[in-house]
Amino acid sequence: RAKHAGRNRIAFFEPSMQMQVEERLSLENELAHALGTSQLEMYLQPQFTMHGRPVGCEMLVRWTHPVRGILSPAAFIPVAEESDLICRLGEWTIREGCQTLLRLHTEERPMTVSVNVSPRQFHETEFVEMVGKILRETGAPASQLIFEVTEGLLIDRLDQTIARMDELVDMGIRFSIDDFGTGYSSLAYLRRLPLYELKIDRSFVRCTPDDQGGTAIVQSILSLAKNLNLKVVAEGVETPEQSRFLYSAGCDFLQGYLLAPPMPFKSWLQKLKAKEGMQAAAS
Ligand code: C2E
Ligand code: MG
Ligand code: MG
Ligand code: MG
What we know:
The chain is α/β, with parallel strands linked by helices. It has twelve helices and nine strands. The structure holds ligand C2E and magnesium ion (MG) (3 copies). This is PAS domain S-box-containing protein/diguanylate cyclase (GGDEF) domain-containing protein.
């Protein structure tokens, strides 16, 4: 094989493969150390009703790496997912979500908090017990907690997945399907799941209102959701045109840079207070 491939190709190929493996391993090690330190931080991105009222926020993890700078979750969540780290990271994100719920409650600004839950984490043997333990320890209201899962979760072990979701729903937690439309979930599955909402993936939102195909997909998701009695969040809303289109198409909630970027809890609280101050001054 080596002969056929030629010396140069092999010489080029092998080090790069090795570097990828080493890179992944060192990122994994560094993440293991970063967990539990201030390098990892939760940002939150608010979600609004069509009339601009804040109703919830999604928790998005940020890693300020001492050498590499701020890393996007897209760069390290997949690495975490290939090891047990996702479970440690996931436990921390749920705990952070619960703490955020309590802080919002203390500030008398109750709203839902959405936490991303990866498939591997969800299928962990102790997952339900772990969630129950965090809820008991923090005293956070489960009724305000939303778990965002992807369609990938539904591909195998569907009966087990549904049973597990039911247990969590009994605890008061709601479920949302993230990046909806990008996976392979069959419509028949959707009906069987105890869901609260769908989040339209931003790749579709981005196409509205000018692109016919994208717009048609968004409209189909909205009518499907309406028929299944589910709420819909549009993610990645960036322009007033998209927002207007989503309003007229009957979307429930908006999330995106047009409204607010992900930010630390403190900044969000300041924004809320500033907005209320402006409203008070205007009335
Ligand atoms: P996601 O759950 O679909 O989160 C939405 C992503 O879109 C976030 O990227 C957010 O910053 C970004 N976004 C929000 N508004 C806009 C917009 O208007 N335009 C554009 N172009 N992007 C927007 P982020 O924070 O980089 O997170 C990427 C993904 O990483 C998330 O996608 C989620 O799947 C995953 N992730 C983030 N935090 C966690 C976590 O704590 N646990 C797990 N398991 N996954 C996480
Ligand atoms: Mg999400
Ligand atoms: Mg999403
Ligand atoms: Mg997405």
